[in-house]
Amino acid sequence: MDIRSQVWSPLQNTSVWLGAWLYGLTSTDHLIDALNDLGSQELIDALRDLRRVTRDVAPGEPLLRLVLSGPGDAPALRAGSASATAASKSTGNAIVVRDRDPLTSHVLVPDSSGHWEWFTEDQPLPAPAWLSPGEADHLLTQATDEATRLIETSGYRTDALRSPRLTVGTLADFYDTPGLPESVPPRAARLFARADNVAAIIETVTTRMNDHRLDPQLLGLWRHIRQARMAGVAYAVGEFGRLS
């Protein structure tokens, strides 16, 4: 199994860039550069339609939100819908965009090759958790501390990784590329950074060191990493709306 696909998705940064652009906080040129860097070039052709469907949307929830899924977590989309089926067959991830009609949502689903499908749902989607950055950070911290305790209790040590609290700088640099808009609120950026750090540690142990003895302790963190990323996107895009 590809560990990186479970702990990181370019959709996190894609969602933030789209949100900043839809709220007028970044230019179209900067957005296009970011989409090219993120491998989401195909979305460039959809920008005009995204602007159209989000025009005059009532204040309230963020204009868009991120949907991430993984083992044990189905995509938070309407069961049996075309968008849920497409997401389940590809990456399991999606971007949900609001419409001026409160009962309508637009679901953008990518596959692993960078192709996107656009689905329009005319029935309510499952409600997201809407965790605050503080709540998501607390849950991720708790899960990390518990995994660390289990690892330390097991007596696990290697010459390559002497402490499970190691910060893996080289991989953290990967997760931060190609960056985020300047308008991202610090609380969201800090939450993304914590998720990146935990993801880098997991990838180091399971992939770079090819050591799977700790899988039971580490794999439970995946869900909390995804929750942190979704919460960070929702908070950032919500703040964009407040600032615009």
From TrEMBL:
Protein name in the entry: Uncharacterized protein
Annotated organism of origin: Corynebacterium testudinoris
